[in-house]
Amino acid sequence: MLPSQRQEFILRRIEAEGSVKSIELAREFEVTNETIRKDLEALAGEKRVIRIHGGATRITDARHDMPLPARQSTNRFEKSVVARAAVQLIQPNDTIFLDASSTVLTMTNYLPQVPLTVLTNAHHVIVALGGRPNCDLICTGGAYEERSRSYVGAMAEDALKRFVIKWLFVGVDGLHHLLGASEVNPGQAVLKERLIPRAENVCVVCDSTKLEQKSPFIFGEISQFSVLVTDDRAASGLLKLYERAGIRVIVAELPKEA
């Protein structure tokens, strides 16, 4: 069977059953787990499925990788409120990492005026914080992505190996209480996945529209996150699902007229 035929069969199975397991597919097709992994990654790359640990699941809420200016203009007010709440976690002399998401970029407007070491792969974070007093600003470098205006790839990942990160702040395209955190951008997803184990604390910052959503590339299991900062439009019952998973939930209150 050709890979394309096998992938179409896998896709039909996922659409019918909701999810598949790699080990079962390998046994059924009499191929290696590595072959099935490549099939699932190919389907995820085409945004036809979502990769999860040990298999794949169908996409119920497909999202597109919008350019940074478009992302910045979406839910601007909610992002501002969430960003203000997230920076309260930062203490003097912390080493923090700010990713290339629009909500994390908004945090640069509200960072406390204390000594900090700021690591980032985001060009716009460098622009926003350049020249700031008491701020040691370090950019990863790497392969530049115009769409996200950030740096990804092996060089970006290697640049961060020597740092102990007190707070890793990440945005998401989707956060699901079972599947974890996901991204539409594979380069960003890989960088975040490899940074999470190196951070003492990992904070997800996102507005409530991202909760219980799924995107093609999973970069972290729910148990790997320390804190979730979101807005008060999230249902209390939903937030309890994250708390039961061991995440501290900080709810930023939106003014009544918002």
TrEMBL record:
Q: Report if keyword Cell inner membrane is assigned.
A: no
Enumerate the PROSITE patterns for this protein: HTH_DEOR_1, HTH_DEOR_2
TM segments?
A: none
* GO MF annotation, one: DNA binding
User: Which Pfam families does the record cross-reference, listed alphabetically?
Assistant: DeoRC, HTH_DeoR
Name of the protein described by the UniProt record: DeoR/GlpR family DNA-binding transcription regulator
The yes or no answer to whether the keyword Cell inner membrane is present is no
**Native source organism of the sequence:** Thalassobacterium sedimentorum
| Alphabetically ordered keywords of this record | DNA-binding, Transcription, Transcription regulation
- The residues covered by the HTH deoR-type domain are 3-58
